[in-house]
Amino acid sequence: MSDATTGPAPRQGGSGAAISIRGVGKEYAAAAGPVRALTPTDLEVKPGEFVVLLGPSGCGKTTLLRMLAGLVTPTEGSISIGERKLFAEGDSKPSHDALDSLGFVFQAPNLLPWRKVWRNIALPLETKGVSRAERKERAVELARAVGLEDFLDHYPKQLSGGMQQRVAIARALIHEPSILLMDEPFGALDAMTRDQMNLLLQELWLETGKTIVLVTHSISEAVFLADRVVLLSSRPGRVKDVVDVEFARPRDLLVQNDAGFGESVERLREQLGGHE
Ligand code: ADP
Ligand code: MG
Which CDD domains does its entry note (predicted)? Predict the structure, then answer.
């Protein structure tokens, strides 16, 4: 673990970063006056890196992830995805070119109940004019990658919560984005299912080389999954610490019994002031 209290210094354009966040902050307009959700923040994510944003409820994690997803406009600062600007300083709308590189998974799987598993997975390809045969072929491939090859013709209500979230992950990957953005994707699952999903996600990440930015308020999930944990503090949200996690990959669940794992969790817990 490093003792860095700030992220790496932002480099100039053409840095080769997967995501560059420069001076990005957010103030929401609200009836009772403006709410500062995130102070201006710098962060770079390297291609293929697994970065976890960790912090207590209300510290601006979702706000930051939704800005990366082009769903919320920054109040200040700029965001690049690879070499493309998603938001230049002052832009009120995201650039659609940059959005093509992104896949999203949220806490709720948001599946269409009347569609079978494979047709939920393939949904994003329908607006892209991909033939039915190719959509099915790609959906089957991704269903296999998330362990759902035997459930292609099931409907969402026939699946457990963990399986529904597997469908959401496959759907997020179907247009072959290089970056996966995940907002508390396993927050609604029981502890054992969550462990299984963490293992699955690590395996997918190792196999595909995607860049992942995942939000969680679970310290142990953050340390288990991350190459780097970015710790946010609340009111207003700001980066409080960046912690490198150096356990070898693939990690198995027993790594949580390692003394070093416990130390990382303790360090983060202290800084969060006992919140998890
Ligand atoms: P987190 O995901 O870490 O729980 P959020 O990004 O959802 O935090 O919220 C950060 C802060 O911004 C909170 O104080 C929240 O109430 C406020 N906030 C979030 N969305 C809005 C909005 N659309 N309008 C006004 N305030 C908001
Ligand atoms: Mg949130």
Answer: ABC_NrtD_SsuB_transporters
